[in-house]
Specification:
- 2 copies of one chain form a homodimer.
- The first copy, chain A, has helices at about 15-30, 75-90, 115-125, 180-190, 200-205, 215-220, 235-245, 255-275, 295-305, and strands spanning about 40, 45-50, 55-65, 95-105, 135-140, 145-155, 170-175, 225-230, 250, 315-320, 330-335, 340.
- Chain A is an alpha+beta fold and about 350 residues long.
- In chain A, the strands form 3 sheets. In chain A, strands 8-10-7-11-9-12 form a 6-stranded mixed sheet, sandwiched between helices. In chain A, strands 3-6-4-5 form a 4-stranded mixed sheet, covered by helices on one side. Chain A has a two-stranded antiparallel ribbon with strand order 1-2.
- In chain A, a hairpin with a 6-residue loop joins strand 1 (about 40) and strand 2 (about 45-50).
- Strand 2 of chain A pairs antiparallel with strand 3 of chain B.
Chain lengths: ~350, ~350
């Protein structure tokens, strides 16, 4: 495990105030190469992006310091990865391939330029996970903390968009990508694991989620009837599909348990490292974030899987006859009714994340 | 002059915390009807917008409380108008017609739902100024103040985009829309004019700028060689064209002076109202915001025209033989060289707005 972020910031870097808004834009753009869909890139009133399909998929997401990330936990490169991932995953969840990002960045004047440069490097690196995607434009402003708003644009290449409203009784429910890993990483950081241990898979899942972008168009091609990315938590996001489709989603605990066991083992491994390095004790039942009820470790891991957001894995419904590739794990079925249950029983813990509750 | 905002907020409105994130989204979407280009609107992972041209113009802009607006000066409907206008004007400045907006809104939990509803009404009303434009999606988050990031998308309908880089020696420079009105309105508000006097044209120009959106595609069709919207100030924005095109822009003071005289008369009229209503004395030479050097009134008005941003008027360069419609006022010419001058002399006051300086 490395204990120093590879992209730590040199203290002598000039600040945004020193280089000014246009110096910052010039700096950022030098780290954000145009992509093959970029007809007009950074530096004009607006960008121009190729949309050969005649439609564009478009989504926007905030990533706010203190709300979605902490600068003492996330390196600027992490923040760039995460900011891009949120929008790229939304594009994928429609069955589209992302082609361009617009990045609005507000920051304090004393922010080092090197921080912004590393942010841009993270944005570019995450875009590179989607062939053809690139940062095509953005905005800058001054604020007391770092605020990001990222717009993702994408191309459906002739596919029908996969909505939340198409699930039908009899469909199977399947997921591509991890569940609960980002939540586990956040809990471990909250319990005192140093962010420098960034090679740990759970910490990395929180700091730099790696959504399975290509699974989105794949699901569309396989005939997915509904799809969403897991940003608010599996139960909450399947709840959106259930509501929009007027169906009941019934998950099978036996299909979820292998992943729970694997997740718990990973968390225990990290806790043992915390013990050895003399960091705050956070093993076993004390992994819970401060102020939350303590759960037994298996319960904690199941809660991460069911209610933890920010992995940006994709969950979709498919007609029963569809043969799914191995990356898609079937975890339940769609039935007549409303809501989401597990083994036909309601889940009683907090169900996801409401920004204003 | 009306002295009460038409869209003041009832105190008994529930808060965002009371209705929750999904209640807020439902509330907003009921005020944001889909437009003719909206294939998938608010409520899924992403929107889908028609782009019949095979290209999409895309831009994003912040509108931050305390930085770009004040809640005690701007009604929520004003904020909606202004947030939409910034992005719609950028789309127009490329020669395109806006077709969709994505609106990211972060707000404190104690914000009344009625504030968000009025914001949505302002966004929708500003979109209605561009046939076919509508809000197609967005994001919500929690923050300590109101943060908006608006993405504008638009269609070129076969036109070449009008960039900043195409101006050539011999071109004429022309502007459509007012200059300095928003800056004058801001100065009047800063000097103590109550925001309730919102029917005053200069106050209205600050609270609800009304960019001449259709002048953008018109300029493209007329053969404009470069174009920009005046968001940072006329000199600063023409400076961007001069830099990108490697040319000198020479403005003629005699072409600017009629507008200066008109602007000054409007400002004096408002100052006389301030005197009559017993508001803080701000007539004549004391219109300057606190802390800035006092200028003679004609100097102040010229400064508003040359360095005041946020009118989002359009300034463009055209080949000399182009016959311009009356809405376009010729204010100068393009010559070999670099930079922006007036009557071949540099302008010595602060030149526009740098967010980090």
């Amino acid at each position: 495990l490395s204990v120093v972020a590879e992209d730590s910031i040199a203290d002598e870097s000039p600040t945004l105030a020193a280089v000014g808004e246009f110096g910052l834009i010039a700096e950022l753009s030098s780290w954000l190469p145009p992509g093959r869909n970029t007809l007009v890139g950074i530096g004009d009133d607006a960008a121009v992006l190729a949309t050969p399909d005649g439609r564009v998929v478009a989504t926007t997401d905030f990533l706010l310091e203190g709300r979605h990330f902490r600068r003492d936990w996330s390196s600027p490169r992490d923040v760039g990865h995460k900011a891009a991932a949120r929008s790229l995953a939304d594009v994928a969840a429609m069955g589209a391939v992302a082609s361009g990002l617009l990045v609005a960045l507000a920051a304090p004047p004393d922010l080092p330029v090197s921080w912004a440069r590393e942010l841009a490097a993270g944005l570019a690196a995450e875009c590179a996970r989607v062939p053809g995607a690139s940062v095509i434009g953005g905005d800058t402003a001054r604020a007391d903390c770092v605020l990001l708003a990222v717009t993702g644009l994408g191309d459906l290449a002739g596919r029908a968009p996969v909505l939340r409203s198409g699930a039908a009784a009899g469909d199977k429910v399947a997921v591509a990508g991890p569940l609960g890993h980002a939540a586990a990483g956040l809990a471990l950081l909250s319990a005192g694991l140093p962010a420098g241990l960034r090679d740990d898979p759970l910490i990395a899942a929180h700091l730099r989620p790696a959504p399975p972008y290509d699974a989105g168009p794949q699901a569309a091609d396989l005939g997915a009837t509904a799809m969403i990315d897991v940003s608010d938590g599996l139960l909450a996001d399947l709840g959106h599909i259930a509501d929009a489709s007027s169906v009941l989603v019934d998950l099978r605990s036996d299909a979820l348990l292998p992943a729970v066991t694997e997740l718990l083992a990973a968390a225990r491994h990290v806790c043992s490292i915390i013990d050895r390095t003399g960091r705050p004790q956070a093993a076993g039942p004390r992994i819970s974030p401060p102020g939350e009820a303590l759960l037994s470790p298996p319960g904690e891991a199941l809660r991460w899987m069911l209610t933890g957001g920010e992995d940006h894995s994709l969950v979709a419904t498919f007609p029963p006859e569809v043969q799914l590739p191995a990356r898609w794990t079937v975890i339940g079925t769609v039935r007549p009714g409303r809501g989401v249950v597990i083994d036909n029983q309601p889940w009683t813990q907090a169900r996801g994340w409401d920004h204003f509750a």
